[in-house]
Write the structure tokens for this entry.
Amino acid sequence: MSRGRPLDTIGFDADDTLWHNEQYFRLTEKRFTELLAEYAEAGHLSERLLAAERRNISRYGFGIKGFTLSMIETALEVTDRRVPATVIGEILEAGRAMLSQPAEPLPHARETLERLCGRYRLVLVTKGDLFDQERKVAQSGLAEMFDAVEIVSDKTPDTYRTVFARHGSGAERAMMVGNSLKSDVVPALEAGAWGVHVPHDLTWALEHHDTPDAARFREIANLGELETVIDEIG
């Protein structure tokens, strides 16, 4: 790795950037609405669940455990606490099932990391349940290509300043790559890094954000296009 070049560290988001994740939440939410179909229609249940998730992020953080607790809370609310114990049991089982889903790499993820490994410091920066994220990192088969793995409670400008100072030469010579504008790109730009958005077909509603107007912002169709952006930067 050359000293003094514009870029020496690249951070990657994990869920729905390197491997599939949101699809399992969508499937579980569908099961949740089926379990409560006699109490409310699916669209209303999804709205109530999203509202519960928004309320509970500060309490439970991001990830499957918070999602499961929010499903239970919503079930209690929409049934005036009359939801059968069997339904609560099935919600818990659905949450447990999510914790055993495979970390299936997305197209171009492995090949891109293999080509960048050794040329740049690669850092995996992810948020969510600690044990679940550790499990997915191990199962993905991608861990060996990273110089460091950071599992954080949230992604803020200070998070990126700290991570890129710890594992590189600071945010100004770093890039963050991810599918979420809100978590992966905008706070990284605010920290002074490059931000590369890789849109995913499924993105959680709470991760939506307006496209930033910033000199260091880039958007690519897939990870296979990342090296073109890196070569442009130098």
